[in-house]
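User: Can you fold this complex?
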Amino acid sequence: MKHKKAKKQKKVKKQKISRPHFKNIKKRDINANARQKIKVNIRTQTPSTWCPGCFNFQILAGVQKYIESQIILGKKREDFAIVTGIGCHAKIFDYLDLPGINSLHGRVLPTCLGIKIAKPELNVFGFSGDGDAYAEGMEHLVHNARYNSNIKYIVHNNQVFALTVAEPTPVTEKGYRDKTTPRGVKLAPLNPIKIMLAAGASFVARVFADSEQVNKVLEEASKHKGFAFIEIIQPCIIFHDDKGYKERTYNIQETGHDKTNMIAAMQKAEEFDYNSKVGKIPLGIFYQKERDVFEEVLRK
Amino acid sequence: MKITRGDSPKREKMRWDIVFGGKAGQGPNILTEVVSEGLIKKGFYVFYSRDYQSLIRGGHNFNILSFSDGPLYSNSSKIDILVCLDVNTLEIHKKDMKKKGIILKGEEENMFFAGAVYKILGIDLKILEDELRKIKNYEENIKHARKGYEKEKRKLKLPEIKESIQNLSFMNGSQAISFGAVASGLDYYYAYPMTPATPVLTELSQMQLEKNMKHKTVELENEIAVMIAGLGSSITGKKVMVGTSGGGFDLMTEGLSMAGQAEIPIVIYLSSRPGPGTGLATYTSQGELNLALYSGHGEFSRVVLAPGDPKESTELINQAFYFSQKYKVPSLVLTDKHLAEAKYLLEKSQKILPVENSIIRMERYNSYEHDENEKSVATEEKKVIKKNFERRMKKQEEINKEAENFEMFKIYGKQNSKNIIIGWGSTKGAILDAISEGKIDTKFIQILYMDPFSRKIKPILEEAKNIIIVENNSTSQLASLITQKTGIILNDKNKILRYDGRPFFSDELAKEIKERLR
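Assistant: Here's the predicted assembly.
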């Protein structure tokens, strides 16, 4: 009897909220929607031009799964905006039927910021490659970490400029050779996790290019109010195929990492320098602490 | 075609020029303001320009305030009253004094000189006191002003003006641009500080504090971010303007080109100063016409407009929003330091076109060549590419056609004259005053629409005996544009060019024009 009453109340509540945030929905409702067989497919008909077996397919699947789950829960296609840069990663724009813009190389974050400033209610997802994020767009990356606009920023890090055929990026390891660097890379790579922590990013995470990991981290990042930096370790099977990466990874949440502790986060970030062939690669949320959000401060 | 001011005056207009000079921080600006207010209240027309160095304290800064019993829009090179806030000012400017000119000097506060100038000009001290009461800590200032007024015994002989000035506002180009942008429905103004575009950022930021203002100003890390974030906001259906000077605009050009490809409306306020490089940070130049016309890679449509005074600044920024939204193209409004910072007494424009947003809700945009029928995904399909180019080109034709309904150029002066002076932008004021004060037999064509360029200009130029061009640059960029658009090649000897960072003086310009018409 008691149980029935609770169910009734739940129904009334659901009618009131036309576009429920997923926080307000219990698992039961998802199942209810699933039973009604609501089918959502945000994949365009555009055939993919990524190389067969590319890890970008894993990222696409993870993103697609997350956003489709949100649409099933009541969000609309128009509640999302996607922004991409230029490079292999950017092809994801053609495969996701969502509003947005395939912007310029390095300019993903200012594009996201402009959208978010004008329409704070949109769920804005930015996608960049490592060249896009850490070379051409580094100034925007550091400043956007400081602005803390509620943007979810995903970096497909394959440690190489793949679409321009194999040149080194700022995160390519020492000794890497290609036709433009016949004597090999002489400089040590940047550590973007450390940069983001130092620049004040309020959510810093790294995952491997695996659809489940991508889906999960997007769930966590979307619960976070503020700028979320998500780096995806994504081997390039043609130019930077480090098959050893996945085996070296472990999840820092499973080893009791305190994500509110900046010093602990820095220490975890130090464990992988993007250069060494051995040692563990920590994955998970390095740091998370909410603070004022740019688009809200602008309106105060 | 409209005939505007500058028709041959019925009687000779009289003019006086006052120079206020001193070190940065000594307050020549506030001094110029309070004297201007007094003169306007007495019924005089006032114009003043600012000459200042790129420093915060010290150096030599001066303002030239010109006034007349009829409309005037420029300074002349000769000084009637020289106000020296420091010794340097006297040394630098005494050579330009008129024979019976008055010099004010001595170690006094700036408002002492305001009082003295009021006395010389025969303006009631009460007007000055009322002006000063609007400023903080006015008691001290009023004390100094009274002292200056009492001590001063000299007098400038001025005519009594019976008609008072009504319905005119005293404003600079930056204020007029800001007013026009807000009147057009501005939502966001993105900028990074750069002289001489910064006064628009300041003005719009201050306006936000007023009631019922919806617009926001946003300062970001550099002009690249400014332009790109502007485009980001624009695709959500907001009206966006970005502002900068040449160096900052260089950084914006990749975004400009994207706006061309993705067809995103954006208004760019480009206020020039002399380049190349950092050039002269606080001086004036018309060296960026080519930059405005040809910047950005690839081929795409744009609108480039150049106002000649504050009234036109308001009207043209509004027209820039109109064309940008209607045709989803970038629109540029080109001014310079002189127009941005000089103050003119003109009627405030009420000619504001309603601007409708062309983007109702955000869809999909692409900096790649894309297929609009296939969710704007990137395409390399030759048929689609060709169709896209043709569609964008057709848009240019439509813009050209509609623009002819606007005042793309204005004609002043003697309609039947065989002589023509051509100019654009801020040189308008000096040209108009040079013609009327020098009683020169000429027409003056002011070009406001640089791109598109009116088809009606060519037949007018073809009928002329002499064509003189006046520009604040060293290569006569407008002459190149005229040749490109009309096939008419202008005589190099008839190019009056000033490129020392300073605007034209009306008397010097009149002399230069006369020499060429002899």
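Chain A has one domain: 56-297. The longest helix of chain A spans residues 56-72.
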